[in-house]
Amino acid sequence: MTDVRRSLPAIGTLLEYGGVRQLLADAPRELVTSAVRRAVEQARHNPAAAPKDETGWVHAIATEVDAALERSLRPVINATGVVLHTNLGRAPLAMQALTAAQDVAAGYSTLEYDLAAGMRGSRHRHCAKLLAELTGAEDAFVVNNCAAALVLGLNTLADGRDVIISRGELVEIGGSFRVPSIMAKSGATLVEVGTTNRTHAADYQAAITPRTAAIVSVHRSNFAIEGFVSSVSPSALAPIAKAAGISLIHDFGSGLMLDLSAWGLKGEPTAADAVSAGSAVVLMSGDKLLGGPQSGIVLGTRAAVSAMRENPLARALRVDKLTLGALEATLELYRDPAVAVREVPILRMITATADAVAARAAALAARLTAAGIAATVVSTDATVGGGAFPTARIPSSAVVLTVANADSTDAALRAWRIPVVGRIADRRILLDVRTVPDAHDDLLVSAVTGALTR
Ligand SMILES: *Cc1c(COP(=O)(O)O)cnc(C)c1O
């Protein structure tokens, strides 16, 4: 045994140190005691780095206490330039959505209560009228996410039967989740038709048998294929399904509610376009281009939607009151497209002019320079992310930090109290400003100066 190990202070002694007793003001005794034990354990493990004196021990124990108190789910500053960053929580919510969720969460609500009748109501009716009004669907309801909506749709309309899908639409939607694996869990049997690059109407028609319950059309939202390609649109599939007496299920994904072509984002159908194509159901995410909370939105015919609602599986996939409150308030903003573009954070980020983003980047760089940090500005391309507009590049600007070691600076930014997630390019740190809400400029400056001048 080395001298250091022999001379490690006893747990009881460490707990009596003034600095450690102060920690008890903010943390329960049990947690501080565990932190003391871990600090001693580390010193035993790595005697060379063991604290040398009381100040050293207090610091080591305080670091352990901080780590134990740190939340797992924490806000970060997204400076990646990817607007809908799935790893960073996709869409930030509009103020109106936050207020609605808070109002509903702080007390009791009409979640499953019909005020007029004075009796039990259904949570599935929330948002239904509003979604119908905004998209032209006959009926609508909300589940946990789009993947859940797909499983529920298939299980309701095609359990134990065949569903036809193009090989060009057997896609992976991220996090190693694949649409065909999700679909297989629904109880329906997939029948693949066509090839990766080309599928024709005749391929679908030839595959229809008495076992067929549905055709599934999966929107190619997160990739693009070019060249010798051909696919059959939902509006061309609808009459084929109708003639065969089967359902058309459209996994639409992105949830785009407004035409964004005025801002250079062209070629994507809106939810209303998808509904008018004539599918039995259109399924989409609430937290992608719609800019609301995580949810899966089902839009469709009265018969298909009510069958999905009545499926016992709907109970397992139901959303909570926070989601419904936030979603309803987000959807309300779409009654006036100008209001939506102004108030829905992801739409505000996507539609901000390149000049406005460049001006913010310049102002941020100037503030950092004044604080002694070498910061300049560079033009970048931001992306929509979240499996939407996969090839679109949105002109943007980034603050460039020229540092001695980009990897360690990047780690320091991520380790800050409010972590900053940027990217490294050419051994410099790029902080894309388009994805930083303008209200967070001060936060970004204080995080970067804090992390870099510590
Ligand atoms: C994103 C996406 C999904 C999954 O949506 P979640 O809401 O994340 O479950 C399914 N299908 C398509 C086409 C998508 O783009």
Descriptive account of the structure:
It is a single chain. The protein is an alpha/beta fold and 454 residues long. The protein has three domains: 4-69, no CATH class; 77-86 and 347-453, Aspartate Aminotransferase, domain 1 (Alpha-Beta Complex); 95-342, Aspartate Aminotransferase, domain 2 (3-Layer(aba) Sandwich), CATH 3.40.640.10. 42% of the residues lie in helices and 18% in strands. The protein is built from 20 helices and 18 strands. It has helices at 3-6, 11-16, 18-23, 29-45, 54-69, 95-106, 128-135, 146-158, 179-184, 201-207, 234-244, 271-276, 302-310, 313-316, 321-333, 337-343, 345-351, 354-370, 406-415, 441-453, and strands at residues 77-78, 82-84, 113-114, 119-120, 139-143, 162-166, 172-174, 177-178, 189-193, 212-218, 247-253, 281-285, 296-300, 375-385, 394-401, 420-421, 423-425, 428-432. The strands form five sheets. The protein has a seven-stranded mixed sheet, sandwiched between helices. It has a five-stranded mixed sheet with strand order 2-14-15-18-17. α16 packs across α17 (345-351). The longest helix has 17 residues, at 29-45. The protein is globular and about 85 Å long. Bound molecules: pyridoxal-5'-phosphate (PLP). Pyridoxal-5'-phosphate binds at residues 145-147, 173, 218-219, 221-222, 251, 253-254, 285, 296, 387.
Helix content: 40-55%
How many structural domains in the coordinates? 3
What number is the mean pLDDT?
A: 94
- What's the number of extended β-strand segments? 18
Number of helices: 20
With strands numbered from the N-terminus, the spatial order across the biggest sheet is 5-13-12-11-10-6-9
Return Rg in Å: 27 Å
Tell me the name of the CATH homologous superfamily of the largest domain. Type I PLP-dependent aspartate aminotransferase-like (Major domain)
The structural class is alpha/beta
CATH topology of the largest domain: Aspartate Aminotransferase, domain 2
Amount of beta strand: 15-25%
CATH domain class of the largest domain: Alpha Beta
General shape:
globular
